[in-house]
């Protein structure tokens, strides 16, 4: 039976199967070939002319307003089509920019099997989008098939970070650490936006009125939750910290035989609006560093202290609380998704006037954001290492350990597989406390994407304070 002939509910279940985000579970054992066999996705050959044409277009600067402008779920069919068409209008250009960026690397680096695999993955994803490029999505059947394309895109690029890490390690003789950092700063920030756009539409698909009515497992009359797609408007950072603590504690006990204690103070009940998977990734990386330093210094009896402090209320938000719609601008959210040399400052200025849909009303209380401090007694960061902590290629591993990781050496000898610690958010497992220098700079990229940041203060010989600041989405209904 072709995908066109499948009942809508079966197609929706297929998308759910290949969308770990919506089921809140991981489905890691599915190959891209299996995905294609089930979905029968249409493809179109990608030519150099296609890439040149699309890459010459300026990127749409993604804002949090873009992610919520279609309204609070359950979305109507028209709002769902609007989400699909916005997604379709922006993703081909973003993928072409990434392909062009990869091709601008030194030829010997692009020839590396790992880097080349990422290039081919982008070509594949663009080939599944091109058949849709000249049409508008106006029916539920087309929307379902398009959402399957989005599910394939998310699955295809799930392991991008670990594959790139392995590739750049293998090619480290042919490209400098500075060049690697410059490329990854641009590439991985752009990946955040591309992934968010695809996952947001998939999330809105499942929470839309038409598909909730079709699914035998969902009650169309069930009350709305705090979620708008991938954004939780009532996200409690303390809950994310406790969840990440449990994961990292198990890893720590597995490797070292002990687990430090963690305390939370400040305002643990505080909630704001943000993307939970981003916060989960960042906190996991920061706690891995704190736990590792604490245990290796023999200070596991000293608790790791996490302080949660809401950012001060924004007077502008206070004034808007009784208005009919919220105003969230690209500049106001601090978005740094400028991943193309074709993108200009004027484009940012032009987009800064974009407002939310009138279906989005303010919260009873504004949610400007939060600062989270993680304090450990792990001895701090040595002066010679401190200046390199934001380099993607920087690691405290020695050359033998790096070579062992690349060659897939004996895991039991080191008690860890370093590459598996690089990115929980990218679909990889998180099996150790030490990575290959990607955790901290990638965490900062997630924090900065919507106007936050990470600051590190080290007292060498004593410990480290890490300050994570996050901007809230703004005011939503």
Helix content: 40-55%
- Strand order in space, largest sheet: 3-5-6-8-7
Largest sheet: 5 strands, mixed
The CA-CA distance between the termini, in Å, is 42 Å
Low-confidence stretches: 1-7, 20-38, 218-223, 315-366, 406-435
Top-tier CATH class of the largest domain: Mainly Alpha
Return the CATH architecture of the largest domain. Answer: Up-down Bundle
The overall pLDDT average reads 75
Q: Got a strand count?
A: 8
Q: Explain this structure to me?
A:
Its main location: mitochondrion. InterPro entries: AK/P_DHK_N_sf, BCDHK/PDK_N, BCKD/PDK, HATPase_C_sf, HATPase_dom. Pfam families: BCDHK_Adom3. Its EC number is 2.7.11.-. Strands 3-5-6-8-7 form a 5-stranded mixed sheet, covered by helices on one side. Strands 1-2-4 form a 3-stranded antiparallel sheet, covered by helices on one side. The radius of gyration is 22 Å and the shape is globular. The chain has 2 domains: 8-226, Alpha-ketoacid/pyruvate dehydrogenase kinase, N-terminal domain (Butyryl-CoA Dehydrogenase, subunit A, domain 3), CATH 1.20.140; 230-326 and 361-471, Heat Shock Protein 90 (2-Layer Sandwich). Helix 8 (113-129) packs antiparallel against helix 9, helix 8 (113-129) runs antiparallel to helix 10 and helix 9 runs antiparallel to helix 11 (177-206). Mean pLDDT is 75; it is low at 1-7, 20-38, 218-223, 315-366 and 406-435. Helix content is 48%, strand content 10%. It has 477 residues and is of the alpha+beta class.
């Amino acid at each position: 039976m072709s995908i066109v002939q499948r009942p809508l509910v079966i197609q929706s279940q297929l998308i759910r199967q290949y969308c770990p985000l919506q089921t809140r579970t991981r489905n890691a054992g599915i190959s891209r070939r299996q995905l294609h066999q089930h979905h029968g996705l249409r493809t179109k050959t990608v030519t150099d002319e296609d890439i040149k044409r699309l890459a010459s277009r300026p990127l749409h600067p993604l804002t949090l307003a873009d992610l919520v402008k279609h309204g609070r779920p359950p979305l109507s069919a028209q709002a769902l089509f609007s989400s699909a068409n916005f997604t379709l209008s922006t993703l081909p250009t973003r993928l072409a920019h990434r392909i062009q960026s990869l091709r601008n690397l030194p030829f010997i680096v692009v020839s590396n099997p790992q880097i080349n695999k990422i290039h081919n993955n982008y070509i594949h994803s663009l080939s599944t989008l091109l058949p849709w490029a000249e049409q508008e999505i106006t029916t539920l059947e087309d929307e379902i098939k398009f959402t399957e394309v989005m599910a394939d895109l998310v699955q295809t690029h799930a392991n991008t970070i670990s594959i790139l890490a392995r590739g750049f390690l293998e090619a480290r003789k042919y490209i400098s650490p500075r060049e690697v950092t410059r490329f990854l700063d641009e590439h991985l920030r752009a990946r955040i936006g591309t992934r968010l756009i695809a996952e947001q539409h998939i999330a809105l698909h499942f929470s839309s009125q038409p598909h909730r009515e079709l699914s035998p497992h969902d009650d169309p009359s069930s009350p709305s939750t705090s979620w708008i797609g991938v954004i939780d408007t009532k996200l409690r950072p303390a809950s994310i910290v406790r969840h990440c603590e449990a994961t990292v504690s198990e890893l720590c006990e597995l490797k070292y035989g002990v687990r430090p204690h963690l305390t939370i103070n400040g305002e643990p009940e505080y909630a704001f609006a943000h993307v939970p998977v981003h916060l989960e990734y960042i906190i996991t990386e920061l706690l891995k560093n704190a736990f590792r330093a604490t245990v290796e210094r023999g200070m596991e009896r000293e608790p790791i202290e996490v302080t949660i402090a809401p950012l001060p209320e924004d007077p502008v938000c206070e004034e808007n609380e009784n208005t009919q719609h919220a105003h969230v601008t690209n500049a106001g959210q601090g978005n740094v998704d400028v991943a193309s040399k074709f993108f200009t400052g004027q484009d940012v200025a032009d987009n800064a006037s974009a407002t939310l849909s009138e279906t989005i009303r303010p919260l009873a209380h504004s949610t400007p954001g939060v600062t989270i401090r993680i304090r450990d007694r792990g001895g701090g960061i040595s002066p010679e290492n401190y200046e390199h902590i934001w380099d993607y290629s920087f690691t405290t591993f020695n050359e033998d350990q790096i070579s062992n990781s690349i060659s897939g050496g004996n895991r039991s000898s080191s008690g860890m597989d370093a590459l598996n610690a690089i990115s929980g958010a990218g679909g990889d497992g998180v099996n150790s406390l030490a990575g290959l220098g990607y955790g901290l700079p990638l965490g900062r990229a997630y924090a900065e994407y919507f106007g936050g940041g990470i600051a590190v203060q080290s007292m060498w010989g004593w410990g480290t304070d890490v300050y994570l600041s996050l901007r809230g989405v703004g005011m939503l209904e």
